[in-house]
Amino acid sequence: MSMTDERRPGWVPQEGQGAESAAGPVGRDGRGQAGALAAGEAVTFADSGVCQSGSPEETLAHARALAPRFARALVLLEGPLGAGKTLWVKGFAAGLGLQRPVYSPTFTLLNHYAEGDRSLFHLDLYRIGSLEELHDIGLFDILDAGLPCLIEWPERVPSLAALPHLHVSLAYAGDGEGRVITWAWRPKGV
């Protein structure tokens, strides 16, 4: 899928669309099993799932593999402080072909990464408390344009969950070292 596809936040991924990627050590089941794939074999993700990430590299690879399938979606990222939300965004950006470094927008609220015809918006709502503030920083203009927008701490503005989005949750695994990543496409919100 190219970045010129006419996808909006309400776009519903179709079976076989854009999920092909042999990038990174992600196994067929999305669990990060390096070497589990034959050379050139595609990784395909469903619209929802759960996987265990044992390393930052596996978290990056997971996001990189999902990015082509959800290249024009609103992505809501939840997880405790330090769980890897910004790291996941870095992988997603790489999956879209963006080479620039990705940084947490904790203090800037909004970072925009653009290279050629590729673009990604990254918001951190930790210090935001209302839908009006999101309107003021241009979130709905971004969504209306069908540009990819990844939001950390979306629970700060609960009404965002009513929009069509990819919900991604990162949690600490029982061992404290790895992460459990769950994702679900929610075409009607919630």
From TrEMBL:
Keyword terms: ATP-binding, Cytoplasm, Magnesium, Metal-binding, Nucleotide-binding, tRNA processing
Keyword Magnesium: yes
Keyword Transcription part of the UniProt annotation: no
Main subcellular localisation: cytoplasm
Gene Ontology terms: cellular component: cytoplasm
Pfam families: TsaE (PF02367)
GO molecular function, one term: metal ion binding
UniProt-annotated stretches for the region Disordered: 1-33
Subcellular location as annotated: Cytoplasm
Gene Ontology annotations of biological process type: tRNA threonylcarbamoyladenosine modification
Family (UniProt): Belongs to the TsaE family.
Protein name: tRNA threonylcarbamoyladenosine biosynthesis protein TsaE
